[in-house]
Design a protein that fits this description.
This protein has 367 residues and is α/β, with parallel strands linked by helices. The chain is built from 12 helices and 14 strands. The longest helix is centred in the last third of the chain and has 19 residues. Strands 7, 8, 9, 10, 11, 12, 13 and 14 form an 8-stranded mixed β-sheet that branches. A 6-stranded mixed β-sheet has the order 2-3-1-4-5-6, sandwiched between helices. It starts with 7 loop residues before the first strand and ends in a 9-residue tail after the last strand. Helices cover 40% and strands 22% of the residues. The radius of gyration is 20 Å and the shape is globular.
Length: 367
């Protein structure tokens, strides 16, 4: 059977259980939606999915990814959500030369020091929305900020991005609070925030942790006196569960629920019809991971073994995303607009473009 008529094996390594299960499902839904729009094939090749629940557990990641490559012989890896798992995936992908498209995990190092010609990202780096929010909080005149997050790559890097721009603008992060992932016992830390009396709080949580933090923050009476800010993961895919506690929150992200463009409207309608759900940023990132794969395959007429042509096509592409068109940096991370959004009811409404075509500094990338 010719290389280009056999099924293309795509290994989906995503969280299907635990804190991030809804994120994994949204990514897969977005990916499958793009595939359906192309009649179920990319450059004439049917796609065979091999799915692994990575459980957001870095200790199982290397085994999981090795099985997909060595046992299942996947042509392409797509994953994941948790930054620690993604770093293990990137290491194996780099060592084996397997194409990896990261549809969420923002670990800076994946397109920083671990960058490689075969590793691409359709999402963001943790630095990007954090850096943009530092500018917002400084412009609002806040001088003293407390940060709070899980103690892992995503949290650390999001806080570092925020701190970099906030302190450059004259602000000061007076306290950095953390707790182990996926712990959600926030009470003692909320008491500490109240005692510190900062002008504002910057936080990174997502999934189930974000739901509980936003509700606990409001229940502790802090929302009224100390404004809460964060990257969009705080309120993306979580608003229904957060309810009134999230109302009015400002977040920064590369997507919003009401961009109002023809491209986004068409995507949202197709997604809602297919899945009876409203799409979120995770669905967009899954959709764009499939778009990127499609662009690479089109350039090599479906023959993914023609690696140079595949890579070059994605590097040169302007990706027509529902979030707005984006390109890829030299390190293969999106160069994209970051939006300020405000929670109104069950929507993360677009307020303004905060950073136009923001590129991650990709520290340590040698490619």
């Amino acid at each position: 059977m010719a290389q280009t008529s056999a099924k293309l094996k795509v290994g989906l390594m995503l969280p299907y259980t635990g804190t991030y299960a809804s994120l994994g499902n949204a990514i897969e839904n977005g990916f499958r939606l793009y595939l359906a729009e192309k009649g179920g094939k990319l450059s004439g090749r049917e796609i065979e999915f091999i799915k692994v629940d990575d459980e957001s557990d870095p200790s199982k990641a290397t085994d999981n990814v090795n099985k997909l490559i060595k046992r299942d012989n996947v042509d392409v890896l797509v994953g994941t959500v948790h930054s620690g798992v993604a770093m293990a995936m990137a290491k194996v992908a780099k060592d084996t030369g397997t194409i990896l498209i990261v549809p969420n995990a923002g670990a800076d190092v994946v397109t920083g020091a671990m960058c490689a010609p075969n590793i691409f990202r359709s999402s963001f780096t943790n630095w990007q929305p954090g850096y943009a929010m530092g500018e917002v909080v400084a412009k609002k005149g806040h001088k003293k900020v407390v940060t709070i997050t899980w103690k892992y790559a995503a949290g650390d890097e999001s806080v570092n991005g925020f701190k970099e721009s906030f302190e450059k603008a004259g602000g000061k992060v007076v306290k950095e609070l953390t707790l182990p992932f996926p712990n959600v016992e926030f009470q003692a830390l909320l008491t500490e925030i109240a005692a510190t009396k900062p002008d504002a709080v910057y936080t990174f949580f997502s999934g189930g942790g974000a739901v509980k933090f936003v509700k606990d923050y409001a229940a502790a009476g802090l929302k009224k006196s100390i404004p809460l800010y964060g990257p969009g993961f705080l309120t993306d895919g979580t608003l229904e569960a957060q309810g009134a506690a999230a109302e009015g929150l400002l977040t920064t992200l590369h997507y919003a629920d009401s961009l109002g463009t023809a491209r986004d409207n068409a995507f949202r309608l197709a997604y809602a019809k297919t899945y009876k759900l409203q799409p979120d940023v995770f669905a967009v990132q899954g959709y764009d991971a499939a778009q990127m794969l499609g662009i690479g395959l089109a350039a090599v007429k479906g023959d993914i073994s023609k690696r140079a042509g595949f890579v070059s096509a994605i590097e040169k592409a302007k990706i027509d995303s529902p979030r707005g068109a984006f390109t890829l940096s030299k390190s293969h991370n999106p160069v994209q607009d970051i939006y300020l959004r405000q929670v109104v009811g069950n929507e993360n409404r677009f307020v303004s473009v905060i950073s136009k075509a923001l590129a991650d500094p990709a520290r340590g990338c040698k490619m």
